[in-house]
Amino acid sequence: MKILVTGGAGFIGANFVYYMLEKHPEDDIVCLDALTYAGNLETLEKALKNSKFKFVRGDIADRATVNELFAAEKFDVVVNFAAESHVDRSILNPEIFLVTNVLGTQVLLDAAKEYGAARYHQVSTDEVYGDLPLDRPDLFFTEETPIHTSSPYSASKAAADLLTLAYYRTYNLPVTISRCSNNYGPYHFPEKLIPLMIANALNDKPLPVYGEGKNVRDWLYVTDHCRAIDLIIRGGKVGEVYNIGGHNEKANIDVVKLILKELGKGEELITYVTDRKGHDMRYAIDPTKIHNELGWLPETSFDTGIKQTVKWYLDNRTWWENIISGEYMDYYKKMYEGR
Ligand code: NAD
Ligand code: DAU
What we know:
Blueprint: E1 2-6, H1 11-23, E2 28-33, E3 53-57, H2 63-73, E4 77-80, H3 87-92, H4 95-115, E5 119-125, H5 152-171, E6 175-180, E7 183-184, H6 193-202, E8 207-210, E9 216-218, E10 220-221, H7 222-235, E11 241-244, E12 249-251, H8 252-263, E13 270-273, H9 288-294, H10 302-315, H11 317-324, H12 328-336
Parallel strand pairs: 1-2, 1-4, 2-3, 4-5, 5-6, 6-11, 7-10, 8-13
Antiparallel strand pairs: 9-12
Bound molecules: nicotinamide-adenine-dinucleotide (NAD) and 2'deoxy-thymidine-5'-diphospho-alpha-D-glucose.
């Protein structure tokens, strides 16, 4: 198979590239990535040495580039990871989220329709379901939960999902969608909670916890997400949505304290800051459908995963230090100074 992976220079896309090169060495992988602030060719260094992998720099919203690539490569499968992915940035500047996440998706859907991919897979998020209250631990997101978004980011992802399903219903395009909970693991960009807290703690900088730190996220080790997508593109039913998550709910403050413990740092680094606008309270996925249909279950426990992740950031200091020494500093000041 020849697989197009968009956004493969980002966190989950890169982990997916490595997962697929190892699991299916017979397949060809082409990565299309615009290398925005979140894309990093250093992350793909090892993949670039593999003859079954090819990197193309380009924007998914650029129709001419996308069409040229589809015409030349004749993809069997398209997996769209490319997106603006950070909720806080979407609150500062929503527009690019609409351009990349909505219009970019439409360009890819058109190309898949025009050039005939056997499967178009849209990588989506549990955030399209909005949030759940803290006092109802019995409630979970199923694939039937209504879409009810909170941030410009989640609204743009929901729009892309609806467009993807519209291309199935209207044009019979063979699509699937996955909606996953919060990922963590290697190559996670240090603007997100877990890598940001690891980097700050290692630099003895304050750890900015939003609000009271009670918000709950359902953490999944990134390789478990990659394995789920691989199962869906091979065995998932066309036109269907699959939720991915591992019943691993943690309050932010507990995650932060665990990271400090792993690093042998003191809790005095924790600083409570002004809450995120429109901050979703709790996410929790019900993964029954993917378990029953495709036999998927998470394989990495949070205890193991967080240890592996902390170790990765200790062993790969140059990777994240290069990031936080660049334009990231301006972002950090804008987002956190005086907060
Ligand atoms: P990321 O921000 O780490 O990476 C995004 C990648 O997309 C980068 O390499 C960037 O250069 C590329 N990109 C951005 N705009 C582009 C464009 N216009 N054209 C081509 N490439 C472009 O994101 P991530 O955390 O790896 O998330 C990947 C996908 O998974 C996203 O669609 C996100 O919505 C979804 N998702 C993420 C999580 C999570 O916890 N991180 C959970 C569920 C779903
Ligand atoms: O649920 C899936 C989503 O998870 C993905 O769709 C998004 O792309 C991904 O970024 C992630 O969104 P979150 O907003 O949940 O992740 P983030 O790491 O930004 O924040 C996790 C929680 O930690 C959230 O409740 C906000 C809080 N937080 C975050 C940061 C960056 C803090 O308290 N302090 C911080 O500095």
